[in-house]
Amino acid sequence: MAGIWWLASYPKSGNTWLRVVLASLLSGRPADFNAMPLMSLIATNRTWFDSAIGLESADLTIEQEINLRPRAYEIWAAEAGQPIYCKAHDAYLMTPAGEPLFPTAVTLGAVYIVRDPRAVAVSYANHLAETIDETIVRMDDRAPAASATPGRLPRHQRPRLGAWRDHVESWLRAPFPVHLVHYEDMHRDPHDAFGRVAAFLGLPRDGERIAAAVDAASFARLQEQERATGFIEKPRRAAAFFREGTVDGWRQWLLPEQATRIAAANGDTMRRCNYDTLLMPLPTERHSNSTA
Amino acid sequence: MQTPAGGVHGTTRSYRLCGLKLDSDFDLPALPEWDDPAEAPADVSCRRGVVPSCLKQPDYIAPIFQTSSAGEYLLVLPGTGRILVRAGNDITVEPEFGPAPSNLSTILAGPIQAVLWHQRGLLPLHASVVVIEGRAVALCGDGAAGKSTLAAVLAAQGYHVIADDIGVVDTRGSEEVLATPGGARLQLWRDALVGLGVATDGLKRAPPHQEKYFFDCRGRIPFERYELAAVVQLVRNALPPARLVRLRGAQAANALYNCVHSQRSARALGRAQPIFAAFPRMAFAGVEFWRLMVPEGLAGLREAAARLLAAPKG
Question: N or C, fewer C-beta in 10 Å, chain A?
Fold first, then answer.
């Protein structure tokens, strides 16, 4: 059945990792993350939007662009002839024109990856080459626009993120099937976590193929490939896209007051996702307010 | 043509549209001004007027545009207005809310101009065009590919820029494929200008809501059509080095198709087959097709420019 599976998450929550595993699972061989068959499409892909709509998004106002994105997705779905797997960093939200950004009629469902926001803060700060305090403010900003880069035309359209808590809650309320997967579970038991995702998406899920796909997308392999070939999605200022890939590395980088601030702003959603809001950073000298 | 009740015609301005005279009710700063005799009749007009919300007999309906044969194209863009293009020479604009929206001139000079060329049977490439060794080279690519900045890098080395964003190619001749000069005014983002050592003070923004500026490479360029030497498809690469790869056969034909400006509109206007037929004519005329893989940043574009200039001939 044609339609779109959204592979959604707040940035730096394991989305690329998931897609490399799925690409390897589908192809039966280790995927190149710079050219993943069926898994390279991003909801904010400027080229695909421009091609579908027939205008350059760079010529449009932000409001025009976001109002037209549902039309682009309808065209993608209609012209693909098979299911599309599409990464999305936007929250599940309404356009200024008053309709869902991700149209239900062409949606098959969504996999939503959630990650402890304290770990997201550390990873996202590195990704954006900004301080952790700046990233904490960004993750608390309820305005939907992500960071602007007004001095140049970004390769992708700007995703509409909103606050971390709103992002998570929005996808969990979406009016189509949503499979929630924890980044932490992808680490602790990848075969089970990715197997469940594969089952939800109707993909092959026999143990050997899942195991091979998980091996092909191990963090060490992703880092090795990034060193060898680079990663097209890495921001210019970030040292590396695949940096640490740990579950609780944040405990070495956050200051206690930073962890407290994140938990205070996002506590309800964190508890709903089974994160211990009282967990504190380790007493170590590596705490830093600069980029980790 | 009727004027909407209460609408006010502004002063008509005349522009040079690849050798044609365009009279417009709207400011079109991306286009060079007409500097030949003022009494020359206009080849193309762009007027404020009443535009219907749909065509009478559309044969293609997309979310924001529709067409009726090759002769009529209607764009309905909420927040900007309605634009009707007829027969490759008549553009009627009904802005949505009285004064012209800030991005109207960008839309007119970009996709609407491309539609006009498609209706005229020419081939508008999504390209900036430079002249190297007396022949035109079309630097093609999607938005954010770096077409204009690469053209600016080459201009800084003394090469003439003859078009930005739209490179109009005439493949109708029996032996030659010709590129028509559009203008030497590039649209560059602030970061590119800073990297090139150009201050943005005094440069006009294009359009006003973005940090994108008009940058004139040279003064008036003579209207002289150039033989097209190459179509170069720019593709962003993850890591250095820049690479230049010659394309042949189906790869080259596919690259040409992907380099056409406003492909979806072109298909709706029945231009898919003529574009397909243009490829063998271009190949027969000696036009080369290349893919230029460009690393991120200005350093990557400079390296790409060096690769391009060192390309083997023939």
Answer: N
Q: How many domains does chain B have?
A: 2
Does the CB of A239 have a partner CB in chain B at under 8 Å? Answer: no
Average per-residue pLDDT for chain A: 89
pTM above 0.90, yes or no: no
- Model confidence over B262-272: pLDDT tens digits? 999 999 999 99
One domain, residues B60 and B136: no
Q: Kindly list the strands in the beta sheet with A178-182, ordered across the sheet, starting from the edge strand earlier in the chain.
A: A83-88, A3-9, A107-114, A178-182
B79 touches chain A (CB under 8 A): yes
* Residue A292 pLDDT grade (very low, low, confident, very high; cuts 50, 70, 90): very low
Q: Looking at the structure, tell me whether residues B290 and B211 fall in a common domain.
A: yes
Closest CB from A64, A150, A153 relative to B144: A153
- CATH of residue B252's domain is 3.40.50
- B88 with B190, same domain: the answer is no
- Looking at B119, B141, B164, the residue that finishes a domain is B119
Tokens of B146: 């770096």
Averaged pLDDT, B112-132: 97
CA-closest candidate to residue A4, choices A93, A68, A81, A114 = A81
Answer yes or no: are the C-beta atoms of B215 and B185 closer than 8 Å: yes
